[in-house]
């Protein structure tokens, strides 16, 4: 094929054109997403029952769910969190498990569990923990004219419908504001005087406000459906519902106040201090993120142009994943362009020929388009991983092409007949070998399961596609084009850089003479450097993934459970005023009294959160940790009594390394919850003294005061009451009860029977309420039971169906996760737990330890496979062993780079080391193969010196272009680069130092091996 391309330039040109066309056609069809298609092997079941205490939720809901869901096929772990009105059960399965099958099986178990759940719950929700279900965009609506009810009503019933029919949109979830609600407020004294009860009100509303099918009427001509129409359409219809008939009829309007009001406010949303309603737009799993976002913005513009959006309503986009994707795409495009220009500049400086420079310039876009075509065949999307893979692969796209071009140019300068053909045959095997070793180093990564495999699979496949495309272009197109460069250009243009290169060649030859005279000394120097590198890497702090600072900060606000919403709102308002006065804060989004995120909505007056975006500095980077440290002091000065405020930098949404949001998660398990709570209190007190930790707390700190109704069973039975009757009667009075709905303008408006808060706002008022038995007899509650104050848990955590207490916290500035966990383990050894009690990590440390072991395994496997490929290529063990021994010394450059730039070890660093295992041998392979060719006509030392002189230029050119292509990523320019920046730093420094390994150490090792072999042969 390589010879065919030289003699068929038209054919190879058309094939190249076809590759460009295929790439151009494929590129727009590649999906654009923030993350790869990661589906965590987890399923969540969520059940809501407003106002129910955590203990009751656990007993009546969580335990029932766990009992049924625990037998789901393939389940390896089950845990739950229960709080007031909310139960969430998480099911974990092995990585690689068919999660759709698991979801279907869990759904069947959930259906069975529903029979044992209370009737008052909202419909249970079950879903996969799929990052694609994260909102693709989030909008906040605000108005200076409409109230919270009118704004929420417009958002639900008009605005959301315009967005729901957009292509690729799966759901539009609304939160905040106030939902409209018809409130029926009975007059208790009036009911008592008429001998009626609230139960009569409920029964009448349920039986007199309905619509139902009545079957079909068969007439001679047709079959007609018949239905009962008794649904109320207005408040007047509800007021006419009869409660009592006869001589003295009583209607609902006679004994109750009917209001067109709103549900009880428990959650407030504000954008930059203004109240609003939030809409979360979720895309379909395989929909294009950018296409959905573009369609959304076009629809918003159209709605404004058509004046469908009223002038008083402002719409702000507080979250848009497509912005991040576009920035990553733009950064990659600039990296490709910058790498291509630098590569062309290197070629021009070393070869001094414009036409040969243009050959490299044309090979880059062709190889890139071929890469896109291969990505399309592999069903890959453009995301931060594949785009990062392209940024890393920019240098690789020209590596092989430069080796081929330089070799052909050298033969043409010697005026050799058929120079292109000879040069192509001479270097092709080396190019094929180097590409094979690169692939051998990274392909094992594809067989790894778990989070690491899910996260980096797309990046590896992109690199594979880029390497294959680069090899194909180097072996076909470059020889065909190079052969057409006329012999008149054989000498090139002697630019000033030529003199510098001549001087550099002379210096290298002199150094190589010294190395070959004292090879053991050179090896000793490199060994000392390797020892230093290993010690540096061993002492480096480690993280599973690097810190990804994009200027996004999350602030969590906590208070004592039971705090009134107004008091929590006042504290959050003070924080908002402080933050909005900071010029670095671009936007501030606050959720008071809970949170709304996609399909999840959690209401708790003691919890609030603020999310803000910081302005980037002059360098284009953010310094979130510095800002957080400064802001902590300012918040402390506010003296918010009873309010705890926690600040943390937010990473990329969708990448979860632990179950919670905290860096540290230490779980205590044992038979007695009271003992666990005491142990947690003791250990939190001691752990606060550790300098590596801050913001420590435990899950049982949140408690709340509650009134417990202690029923006198004998008295209740004597008066004709069961516990169930007492429960239902008090529940309606305190929480209210939804009884049907009213239809207006094709909208369902819930009807709720409840009392005014002012009529029932003290324990004394509660004890004096009237309940009615089945005989209609009215009895005061205090005749049936007495009230008792108790302290209850605000949240209950369970793991493997057992209660646990979790100690959580965050890392102090400058501390690593491994250092913190080592300090925690040392503390736990000094303060052992009682018999029957244990602790274990529930956070990121497990992923870190697994990632480190896996990284070491993959690195060892990569080196082994590189050796196997080279041994097969050379049908020899000696030369592959010489090349292999040079790989570890690249660690010297890696350690130097990580040390100078203060970069911790992480999975991207390990991936960079694995990639290096294949890259650093490329130059050595070309050098050793040239030595072998020269040995046919020279001694070992002469062959080494001649080969070093011949291969110096391509070694420098390929290394410089590969490094140059990765410099933008290594410098961390632009959004999305923080995740892969350590990988680029590892490759840049490791590959740069490998120049010394290839040019000095490998010749020394080759000389020693072959001189030893010759001496043995002579003996």
Automatic annotation (TrEMBL):
Question: What cellular component terms from Gene Ontology apply here?
Answer: plasma membrane
Gene Ontology molecular-function annotations: xenobiotic transmembrane transporter activity
Protein's UniProt keywords contain Disulfide bond: no
What's one Pfam family here? ACR_tran
Segments traversing the membrane: 332-351, 358-378, 384-409, 430-453, 459-481, 518-537, 854-874, 881-901, 907-928, 955-976, 982-1009
Q: Which UniProt keywords apply?
A: Membrane, Transmembrane, Transmembrane helix
Protein name, entry field: Multidrug resistance protein MdtB
> Which organism is this protein's natural source?
Candidatus Venteria ishoeyi
The gene behind this protein is mdtB
């Amino acid at each position: 094929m390589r010879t065919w391309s030289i003699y068929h330039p038209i054919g190879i040109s058309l094939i190249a054109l076809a590759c460009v066309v295929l790439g151009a056609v494929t590129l727009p069809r590649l999906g654009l997403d923030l993350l790869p298609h990661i589906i965590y092997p987890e399923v969540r079941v969520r059940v809501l029952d407003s106002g129910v205490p955590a203990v009751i939720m656990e007993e009546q809901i969580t335990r029932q769910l766990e009992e049924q869901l625990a037998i789901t096929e393939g389940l390896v772990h089950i845990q739950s969190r229960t709080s007031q009105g909310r139960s969430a059960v998480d099911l974990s399965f092995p990585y690689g498990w068919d999660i759709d099958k698991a979801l279907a099986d869990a759904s069947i178990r959930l259906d069975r569990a529903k029979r044992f759940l209370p009737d008052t719950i909202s419909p249970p929700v079950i879903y996969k923990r799929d990052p694609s279900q994260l909102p693709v965009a989030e909008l906040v609506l605000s108005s200076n004219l409409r109230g919270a009810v009118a704004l929420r009503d417009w958002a639900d019933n008009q605005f959301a419908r315009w967005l729901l029919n957009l292509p690729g949109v799966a759901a539009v979830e609304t939160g905040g504001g106030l939902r409209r609600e018809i409130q029926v407020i009975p007059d208790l004294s009036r009911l008592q005087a008429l001998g009626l009860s609230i139960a009569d009100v409920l029964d009448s509303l349920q039986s007199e406000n309905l619509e139902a099918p009545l079957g079909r009427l068969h007439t001679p001509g047709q079959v007609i459906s018949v239905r009962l129409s008794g649904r109320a359409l207005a408040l007047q219809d509800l007021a006419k519902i009869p409660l009592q008939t006869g001589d003295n009829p009583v209607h609902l309007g006679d004994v109750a106040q009917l209001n067109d009001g709103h549900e009880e406010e428990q959650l407030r949303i504000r954008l930059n201090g203004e109240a609003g309603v939030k809409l979360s737009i979720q895309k379909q799993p395989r929909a294009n993120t950018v296409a959905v976002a573009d369609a959304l913005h076009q629809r918003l513009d159209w709605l404004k142009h058509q004046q469908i959006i009223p002038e008083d309503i402002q719409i702000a986009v507080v979250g848009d994943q497509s912005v991040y994707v576009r920035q990553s795409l733009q950064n990659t495009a600039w990296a490709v362009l910058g790498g291509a220009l630098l590569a062309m500049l290197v070629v021009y400086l070393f070869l001094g020929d414009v036409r040969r420079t243009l050959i490299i310039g044309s090979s880059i876009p062709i190889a890139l388009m071929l890469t896109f075509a291969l990505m399309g065949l592999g069903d890959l999307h453009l995301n931060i991983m594949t785009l990062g893979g392209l940024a890393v692969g920019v240098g690789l796209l020209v590596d092989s092409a430069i080796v081929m071009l330089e070799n052909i140019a050298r033969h043409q300068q010697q005026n050799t007949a058929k120079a292109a053909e000879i040069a192509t045959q001479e270097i092709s095997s080396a190019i094929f070998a180097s590409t094979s070793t690169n692939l051998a180093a990274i392909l094992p990564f594809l067989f790894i399961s778990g989070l690491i495999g899910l996260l980096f699979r797309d990046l590896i496949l992109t690199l594979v596609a880029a390497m294959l495309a680069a090899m194909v272009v180097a072996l076909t197109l470059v020889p065909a084009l190079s052969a057409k460069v006329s012999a008149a250009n054989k000498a090139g243009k002697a630019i000033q850089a030529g003199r510098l290169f001549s001087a550099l060649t002379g210096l290298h030859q002199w150094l190589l003479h010294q190395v070959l005279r004292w090879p053991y000394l050179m090896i000793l120097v490199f060994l000392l450097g390797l020892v230093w590198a290993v010690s540096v890497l061993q002492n480096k702090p480690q993280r599973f993934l690097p810190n990804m600072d994009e200027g996004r900060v999350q602030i969590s606000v906590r208070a004592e459970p039971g705090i009134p919403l107004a008091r929590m709102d006042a504290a959050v308002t003070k924080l908002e005023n402080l933050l909005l006065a900071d010029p670095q804060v671009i936007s501030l989004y606050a959720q008071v009294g809970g949170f709304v995120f996609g399909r999840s909505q959690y209401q708790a007056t003691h919890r609030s959160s603020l999310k803000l975006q910081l302005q980037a500095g002059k360098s284009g980077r953010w310094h979130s940790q510095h800002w957080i440290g400064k802001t902590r002091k300012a918040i402390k000065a506010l003296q918010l009594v009873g309010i705890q405020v926690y600040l943390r930098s937010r990473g990329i949404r969708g990448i979860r390394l632990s179950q919670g949001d905290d860096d540290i998660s230490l779980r205590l398990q044992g038979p007695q919850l009271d003992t666990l709570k005491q142990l947690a209190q003791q250990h939190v007190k001691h752990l606060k003294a550790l300098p590596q930790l801050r913001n420590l707390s435990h899950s049982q700190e949140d408690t709340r005061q509650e009134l417990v109704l202690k029923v006198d069973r004998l008295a209740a039975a004597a008066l004709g009451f069961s516990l169930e009757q007492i429960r239902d009667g008090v529940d309606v009075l305190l929480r209210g009860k939804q009884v049907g709905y009213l239809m207006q303008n094709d909208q369902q408006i819930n009807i709720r029977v409840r009392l005014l808060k002012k009529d029932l706002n003290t324990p004394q008022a509660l004890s004096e309420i009237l309940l009615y038995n089945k005989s209609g007899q009215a009895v005061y509650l205090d005749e049936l039971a007495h009230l008792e104050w108790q302290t209850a848990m605000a949240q209950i955590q369970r793991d493997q169906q057992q209660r646990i207490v979790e100690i959580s916290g965050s890392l102090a500035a400058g501390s690593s996760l491994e250092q913190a966990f080592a300090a925690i383990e040392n503390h736990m050894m000094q303060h052992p737990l009682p018999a029957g009690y244990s602790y274990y990590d529930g956070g990121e440390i497990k992923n870190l330890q697994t990632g480190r072991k896996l990284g070491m395994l993959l690195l060892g496997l990569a080196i082994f496979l590189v050796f196997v490929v080279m041994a097969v290529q050379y049908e020899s063990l000696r030369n592959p062993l010489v090349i292999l021994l040079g790989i570890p010394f690249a660690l010297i450059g890696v350690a130097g780079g990580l040390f100078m730039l203060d970069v911790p070890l992480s999975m991207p660093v390990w991936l960079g080391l694995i990639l290096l295992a294949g890259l650093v041998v490329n130059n050595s392979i070309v050098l050793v193969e040239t030595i072998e060719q020269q040995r046919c006509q020279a001694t070992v030392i002469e062959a080494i010196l001649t080969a070093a002189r011949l291969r110096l230029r391509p070694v420098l050119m390929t290394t410089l272009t590969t490094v140059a292509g990765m410099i933008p990523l290594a410098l961390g320019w632009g959004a999305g680069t923080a995740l892969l920046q350590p990988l680029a730093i590892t490759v840049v420094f490791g590959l740069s130092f490998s120049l010394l390994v290839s040019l000095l150490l490998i010749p020394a090792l080759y000389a020693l091996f072959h001189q030893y072999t010759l001496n043995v042969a002579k003996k």
